[in-house]
Amino acid sequence: MPTSAPKDCPLCFPVGETLLWHDASCRVIRVDDADYPGYCRLIWNEHVAEMSDLTPTEQRHCFNILMAVEVALRECFRPEKINLASFGNVVPHLHWHLIPRYLDDRHFPQPIWGQAQRKDGGSPAPDVDDARLALAIRNAIAEHLAG
Predict the structure, then answer these.
(1) What predicted TM-score, i.e. pTM, was given to this entire model?
(2) Cα gap 129→132, rounded to integer Å
(3) What is the full DSSP assignment across the chain?
């Protein structure tokens, strides 16, 4: 159920986001994390806390965008795994983390918020700039929504 946005919600009032794609319902941003290149976040624009706060049509739209972004990340970064996470424990505003993972990244096989397994990450992920990633996301969303 939508609530009014608290003035301190960093997802309602973002600063310095790297926006890759958006529509009237949600946006996809790139998270600046040197250890996890390609890390993106899908953020629902309306201030809601849970997927079940959305209508079934909105849920399908959010899930379709989430799946399309995963496809684009796999295409661009060729990771061993993609982690999808939606917590909202710290920021109770519906958002999904999409994180390309590699066998030799700092935390693998643990979640990136867990204890590091090695001091540095291993072999670097492909270098993909924001424009290329944004184009891959747009193309994947268009293809995914076309069915």
Answers:
(1) 0.92
(2) 6
(3) ---PPPTT-TTTS-SS-EEEEE-SSEEEEE---TTSTT-EEEEESS--SSGGGS-HHHHHHHHHHHHHHHHHHHHHH--SEEEEE---SSS-S-EEEEEEE-TTSSSTTS-TTS--SSSS--SPPP---HHHHHHHHHHHHHHHHH-
Rounded to the nearest 5 degrees, what angle is found at the Cα of 36, between the Cα atoms of 67 and 24?
Answer: 40
CA 63, CA 67: separation in Å to the nearest integer? 6
89 vs 23, higher pLDDT:
23
Q: What is the pLDDT of residue 6?
A: 76
Task: Express each pLDDT in 109-142 by its tens digit.
Answer: 999 988 989 888 777 788 999 999 999 999 999 9
42 exposure class (CB count in 10 Å sphere: 0-12, 13-18, 19+): buried
| Other C-beta atoms lying within 10 Å of the C-beta of residue 61 | 18
